[in-house]
Amino acid sequence: MRNRSPERSPADGPLSVRDRHAAIHHQIRQRICLLSYPPGTRLSETSLASEFGTSRTPVRRVLARLEDEGLVQSVHGVGTIVTDADIGALEQVYHLRVELTGLMGRLDPVVPDVAFVERFERLVTRGREIIDTGTPHEFTRFDMDVFQTLLQLTANIPLRAVLERLYYQTKRIWLQAAIEAHLDLKEEFRIFHHELEALLQALRSNDIEAAAHIQRAHISMSFKRLQQNS
Amino acid sequence: MRNRSPERSPADGPLSVRDRHAAIHHQIRQRICLLSYPPGTRLSETSLASEFGTSRTPVRRVLARLEDEGLVQSVHGVGTIVTDADIGALEQVYHLRVELTGLMGRLDPVVPDVAFVERFERLVTRGREIIDTGTPHEFTRFDMDVFQTLLQLTANIPLRAVLERLYYQTKRIWLQAAIEAHLDLKEEFRIFHHELEALLQALRSNDIEAAAHIQRAHISMSFKRLQQNS
DNA sequence: GTGTGACCAGTTGTACACATCTTTGCATGC
DNA sequence: GCATGCAAAGATGTGTACAACTGGTCACAC
C-alpha cells in the first residue's frame, strides 16, 4: 500500500482536505481563545471565507465544529456569535478539568525521554523571559504551548481529546475574567513559572504522577484566585 | 423575553433548525450504535438525504458532527464509512469511562427525588422482562435508556457531555465484540439486572457515591469479561 | 412628539450544479 | 489466458444562487 497522500512533501503546495479544515479550525480557535474575537463577537461566514480564499462551505463546516465544541453559536438571521460563559458554568468545567488532569498520572502515563525534558527546559527558559516583558496575549500563547507539551505525558488518546476540549473552553473565559477582575497578571506569570520549575523537577525524576498532581493543584488554585477577586 | 421558538406546541409541524439537526443526528447515531449500520458500512449522503426528505447539505452537517464524535469517517471519492475500533483503542476509552463514572458521585451529585426513583423502578421491572425474551437489539436499547437516566445523577453538564460521547463510542463496539466472542448475552443480561437492583438500593438511600461506584465496577468488569473471551 | 408599520441590508440555512477523486469492470493488445 | 489501460459510475468536496429570518431605520399617521 502506498501513502494515502501520494508524492507529498512536508512543505508541499496543495494541502489535503483534512489539513485545510484543520488549519482554518486552528486559526479561528486561536483568535477566539486569544480574545482577538472576544465573547459576543459576530463572525461573518462571508468575510472569513474571502479571508481564507475559499467559499462559505468549508468555513461553515469549521464553524459547525466550533459550535459543537461550545466556542460559538450560530443563530439564523443574526450571525455566528462567540459564546460567553458565566462563572457557574466555568466552575463546572474547572472541577472536571482538575479531576481529569489528576488522571493523567494514572491512565497510560508516558515516561518522558531526554528530548522531551530538553524541550520542556527550553519552555521554562522562555517562560522566565516572558515574566517581565510579556503581554496577556503572549502569556496565553505560552500557556497553550505548555499545555500541548504536557498533554503528551499520557498516551490515552481519548483523555487527551477531552482535556484539550475542556482547556480551550475555559482558557479564554479565564483570561477575560482575570482582566475584568484586575487580577495581577504579572503575579500570575510568576506563580505559573514556579509551577513549571516544580514540573521540571518531577519530569527529571520520571514521576508522572507527581507532575499530574502539580498541574492539578495549579489549575485548582488558579481558579480559586479568580473566584476570590471577582 | 418570550420563547425562543414562538407559538410552538409539543407536537407542532415546522420544527426549528436545531431540532431537525438533532433528530437526524439521533436517528443515525441510533442506527450505528444498534448495529443497523455495522462498522464498515458505507453511508450515502444522497440516499440519507432523500430518506429524511431534505438535501445533502443538512445531512452533511450531521455526518461531519458524527465524524468529530468518532463514529464515522468520510473519505473523498469513497464514501462515509462507519468506523471500527481495535481492542486497544477500546481499552483506553473504557479506562477513561471507568474513572469518569466514578466521578459522577463527587462532581455536583443530584439527590434523586421520588419521581426519579419510581422511573428507575419501572426500568428495573422492564429489565426483568427483557432477560428471557430480549434480543441483543432490545438489550442495547434498554441499556441506552438506563444510561440516559443515570446520567441525570450529576448536574455537571460537561461531565454529562463527555460521558455520553464516550458511551456511544464504546457501546456498539462492545456489542459487536461480544457477539463475535460468543459471550453469553443472556448471562450478561442477568448480571446487568443484578446491577440495576443494587443501584436501586443505593438510590433509595440517596447514596449517589455508592451508585457511581456500582456503575464503575459494572463497566470495569464488563470489559474484563470481554477481554477474557476474545 | 410618539407610536407603528413597512421596507431594507445583512446573516445563516438549504438546494443544486459542478469539480475532484476512487473504485470497478470491461475492452484490448499481446 | 493475462496484464494493462481506460472509461464510466458513484462518492464526497466546493461554489453559488436563493430562501428564511432578524434587527434596525425611516417614513407616516395621529
What key phrases describe this protein's structure?
homodimer, 230 residues, mainly alpha, Arc Repressor Mutant, subunit A, 3-stranded antiparallel β-sheet, DNA-binding, GntR_C (chains A, B), Tscrpt_reg_HTH_GntR (chains A, B), DNA binding (chains A, B)
What can you see in these coordinates?
2 copies of one chain form a homodimer. Chain A is mainly alpha-helical. The first copy, chain A, has 2 domains: 66 residues, Arc Repressor Mutant, subunit A; 143 residues, GntR ligand-binding domain-like (Four Helix Bundle (Hemerythrin (Met), subunit A)). In chain A, 67% of the residues lie in helices and 4% in strands. The first copy, chain A, has 9 helices and 3 strands. The radius of gyration of chain A is 19 Å and the shape is globular. At the A-B interface, helix 3, helix 4 and helix 7 of A face helix 3, helix 4 and helix 7 of B. The first copy, chain A, binds a DNA duplex (30 and 30 nucleotides) through helix 3.
